[in-house]
Design a protein that fits this description.
single chain; 274 residues; TIM Barrel; 8-stranded parallel beta sheet; 10 helices; 14% strand
Length: 274
């Protein structure tokens, strides 16, 4: 199955647009695990097992593992997800962006070392920084387009001189991803939930592409507005929530609390389709 096939199957099977993000911070772990980086795998695996039937995707953020010298635990977590939740695709949130042989090594890291189904990328070094990730037709890649942080305005919201008028930079990225860069239908776009009007604009440009939408939950994005702006019957959206789910409880019931929050968010997103 291709990544897009997996995504659509997970959406149908789990009735979900919710992506569960893994941003493990040991200082926020529950008692018994708190402050211990060696327990990152244990914490994340418990969350995954509690939410796997509610998610359209999982999204580990690589920096949260690397900062604690826990890449081996990320490898172990990826094997756990593949063995126990093979129906849920995994997006490695790495935001890589380099060219040539370096990009090829980053692609090997994502797809061979970690076994991810898709990866997040920065497109701002051009197509040759994206192309190495498209060599495996079953894998996916999400390009940063209109991100959820305020500083995104510094570049993404700037106008370009163009024969087609003056598109904003993020609109140009969406057009490239929808058109000439999307060689095998493998690309998606990252658009923040904090900007629902921009989600709607990106969806108008990239009518059928999957959108990865962070910013719901702890970052304050409006889940209902997000769905209304981006969801279409034939175009999946992947709405990520990380901290609101991971840290729903600081007690021993953290996995059960994570499930309750994931269920609440999934149902809220689904209801917004009506």
């Amino acid at each position: 199955m291709t990544f897009l096939d997996m995504l659509r199957a997970a959406q149908s099977r789990n009735g979900s647009m919710l992506c569960v993000g893994f941003d493990p911070e040991p200082t926020r772990f529950p008692a018994g695990l708190r402050g211990d980086p060696s327990r990152i795998y244990d914490f994340c695996a418990r969350i995954a097992d509690a939410t796997g039937d509610l998610a359209i995707a999982f999204k580990p953020q690589i920096a949260y593992f690397a900062a604690h010298r826990a890449e081996d635990q990320l490898e172990r977590l990826m094997r756990h997800l593949q063995a126990n939740h093979p129906q849920v695709p995994v997006i490695l949130d790495a935001k890589r962006g380099d060219i040539g042989s370096t990009a090829e090594q980053y692609a090997r890291e994502a797809f061979e070392r970690y076994g991810a189904d898709a990866v997040t990328l920065s497109p701002f070094m051009g197509f040759d920084s994206v192309q190495p990730y498209l060599k495996s037709p079953d894998k996916g890649a999400f390009l940063l387009c209109r991100t959820s942080n305020r500083g995104g305005d510094d570049l993404q919201n700037q106008r370009l001189a163009s024969v087609d008028g003056q598109p904003l930079l993020y609109e140009h990225v969406a057009r490239l991803a929808q058109g000439p860069w999307n060689l095998n239908g493998q690309l998606g776009l990252v658009v923040g939930a904090t900007y629902p009007a921009e989600i709607e604009r990106v969806r108008a440009i990239a009518a059928t592409m999957p959108l990865l939408i962070p910013g719901v939950g702890a970052q304050g994005g409006d889940a209902v507005a997000t769905v209304k702006a981006g969801w279409r019957e034939d175009a999946p959206i992947i709405v990520n929530s990380s901290r609101a789910i991971l840290y729903a409880s600081s007690g021993q019931d953290f996995a059960q609390a994570a499930r309750r929050e994931a269920l609440r968010t999934r149902d809220l997103l689904e209801a917004a389709k009506a």
